[in-house]
Design brief:
Elements: H1 2-21, H2 32-39, E1 41-45, E2 49-50, E3 54-56, E4 73-74, E5 78-79, H3 81-93, E6 96-100, H4 104-108, E7 118-124, E8 133-135, E9 140-149, E10 164-168, H5 172-179, E11 198-202, H6 205-213, E12 221-225, H7 226-234, E13 239-256, H8 264-279, H9 282-291
Parallel strand pairs: 1-6, 1-7, 10-11, 10-12
Antiparallel strand pairs: 2-3, 3-5, 4-6, 7-13, 8-13, 9-12, 9-13
Length: 301
């Protein structure tokens, strides 16, 4: 009898410990926004190798008082424009911002299995992505361009016909190379890809730039955001933009349509926050800080 009583007591203590740590039990929240506020952090997916939008801060150390799970990154371990926007969203919600870094094709495919709450990763709104993801209002706008090595002889994009170009897998740049139509408004597409071009996908378009600069020869250039090419040049990579932008992108936060907890209230709150960051000049300041120019204004307005 004593052993039974002792066992029951130990089980009760263990249950209390699990409850205090937030483990072992289902969430009592009935929507994702309340769940985030209850646990006191928002988990954002973004790219760890997409400078200047988002990249690892090698000088940053993990704070001892973080509530972020041990297998994700904190705001001190990441940096960039997207990171600052995500942090501003977390601050406005009154929670800590934490970062997951899954591959881009996994993010754009939807069905996240509740592994993160929102993507703040410079995602373009397209008709295909709208089938599996919901989007916030855009927080900035970028032109897409083609870049080649600085010593390349090409003077126009048409001269790349029949050649290979690199792009991040499952990005709008990759889709543009393969089919030209990315599900964007016609007014946002300025040029079709070179005739008979071959797409070489890598995990991220930054890897395309880094590989080209390192001497990789199975492609002659890469397609990415103009902000990335400008950052590549500023970092000393021997590359240059070729010609004018080929299309423009409206970039927004995204949410999984198949989230177990409804995301409607979270999306509405993120919309409100981003609109406020536009109105009070915060996004303009962050854009100027990271890009050297303000690209947060809708170019069609």
């Amino acid at each position: 009898m004593k052993k039974t009583i002792m066992l029951v007591s130990l089980m009760a203590v263990a249950a209390l410990v699990l409850a205090a740590c937030g483990g072992g039990g289902a969430s009592t929240a009935d929507n994702l926004l309340d769940e985030i506020k209850n646990r006191e952090y928002i988990l954002v997916s973004t790219d760890p190798n997409y400078e200047p939008q988002s990249f690892l801060n090698t000088a940053g150390s993990r704070p001892s008082d973080t509530v972020c799970p041990s297998d994700v990154l904190t705001t001190t371990e990441m940096q960039g424009f997207d990171v600052d926007v995500a942090t501003a969203i977390g601050d406005a919600l009154g929670v800590e911002t934490c970062f997951a870094t899954p591959n881009w094709d996994i993010i754009t495919a939807g069905n996240w299995a509740n592994k993160w709450d929102v993507s703040v990763g410079s995602m373009t709104i397209t008709t295909d992505r709208l089938k599996v993801l919901d989007f916030s209002v855009p927080y900035y706008y970028t032109p897409a361009v083609v870049a080649v090595r600085e010593d390349a002889p090409y003077t126009s994009i048409d001269e790349l016909a029949g050649m290979a170009l690199c792009a991040g897998a499952a990005t709008t740049y990759d889709v543009w190379l393969i089919q030209g139509d990315m599900g964007l408004p016609e007014t946002s597409i300025y040029s079709q890809p070179p005739a008979d071009v071959t797409a070489v996908p890598l995990d991220t378009d930054q890897e395309c730039a880094q590989a080209l600069a390192a001497g990789r020869q199975d492609f002659v250039g890469y397609v990415t955001s103009q902000t990335v090419v400008n950052a590549n040049i500023a970092a000393g990579l021997p590359v240059k933009q070729l010609g004018s932008p080929v299309f423009s992108e409206n970039l927004a936060a995204s949410f999984d349509k198949n989230s177990t907890l409804p995301t409607d209230s979270l999306r509405a709150e993120v919309d409100r926050i981003i609109t406020g960051l536009h109105d009070d000049g915060t996004l303009t300041s962050l854009s100027t800080k990271w890009f050297g120019e303000d690209i947060t204004m809708d170019p069609t307005q």
